[in-house]
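residues and backbone:
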Amino acid sequence: MKVWRAFRGCPDVSALRSAANGRALTWFVLLCAAVVGGAAANAPVHAPPPLRIDLDQFDGQKKIILLPNGQRLAYIDMGKPDGRPVVLIHGYTDNARDWVPLVPYLSKQDRLIVVDIRGHGQSDKPECCYTRIDFAYDIKLLLDYLHIAKADIVGHSLGSFITQAFAEEWPDRTGRVVLISSSGGPRPCVPVKKPAFDFAAEIRKLKEPIDPDSPFMIAWWDSPTPVDPDFIRRQRRDSAAIPLAVWQAVLDQGTRFDDLQRGLPRLKAPALLIWGSADPIMEEDSRQTLREALPAAQVKVFAGLGHNPFWEDPQAVAEVVNRFLGAAP
């Protein structure tokens, strides 16, 4: 999925791929949740076939509840009912299905709460509000509904920023956090590099209805590594079904991360930071700000993998996540 999501605003996919190899990207791009750059050349030659989940069965497990704030939120509650609760939070224009490659490798002793964040999947799609606090508050209300006092949280890209907000605002409800393809935000008083392309402008050019098979959407969900075509088709279809107003609202409200540096000192939960070394979105500068903000965090960088390491090598990523979440206090 969305391997070149950093470049999904440009119809010339090959040119965009080439641009990822050294040119600067916008902070909007930091939120694009599922770019898997540069994995094909580093994939193991004799890798075992991946474990698979029946997509119809996975989607059929989804439940929808009405939260006290008036929002209907969709989620899947799977795994061991009395196991350690682990919440999985996806990224921008994605949905709970994003975690399908990773789920088969996660601990069978865990209870997985896999959500469609507001505006996405089968959850409500209001005109507002889409700040990371709004997203995180929905997660808190979902845990209240499920009578879960404390949970570990795993977030990817935009989902990782939501995870940060949750851990900062509700530390007593937070166990451990795993931040995949995340950042600590830009350094204060340091000019942002000039972007190679204005991706926000490309998003604003979209018209409804969004065609899931348009050049834009194909580029948005392109992958240089083998990905189940049915999985990609479903993801494109669901992404195109998100109202354009929501695409733009998340762009306007959810992509403001100038406050990340201020909030991170309040994140006291044990943290694991995961990146792919070839991630064209979360480059070294953006990774370093998070390392500096969370000096006690464990760090794992997967050589040669991109923005979606849990797609490219889900077994290896799951081994690291399982070991971290299962470690003694």
